[in-house]
Amino acid sequence: MNKQGLIIIILGAILVFFVWQYFLPVFDEVVLLRQDLKIWQTKLNDARNLNQKLAELKKKYADLSYEAERVAQAITEKEDLPGLLVQLEALSSQNGLILESVFFNSLDDKKNKKTSPSIAGEKILAIDLGLNGSQNSLKSFLKAIETNLRIMDVSAISFSEQDMSVSLNQNFRVSLNAYYR
Length: 181
Hints:
Layout lengths: L2 H72 L6 H14 L3 E10 L15 E11 L1 H13 L4 E9 L9 E11 L1
Antiparallel strand pairs: 1-2, 2-4, 3-4
């Protein structure tokens, strides 16, 4: 063999040795880094999905907390007589009635088996209202009671006779049941 062929073979062997020692580990490292990149991209996508689900859950929580607040207003923790009185006065005056008298009576389930709460675990507060106004005002008042946020049932309505020559207004007695916890 000639010297040039031998030198080319030796240089080729040295080149293969350098590639083997320095570049192949780098390629192996690149392969490992690409695998790590795929793993981290998967984790990033999972984190984005979780973040999106978290945003959806926060929105649902906000909606449910609003509903829970409305339920808490509908059925109060205690009798809340001052708040109920203000509410009844506002409803009667908004509908053209004069609230003349109010009587509250807390019904005990042991004494009144007939008037047991329609909502499990709730207590009943009986309310007797003395109202003065027209029949149309009474109708609108009853509609307002029906759509009011606080749950109330009308249990009785009574009319009293009035001399129509003196006034167009009549006296009404309305009995309601309000619920509380």
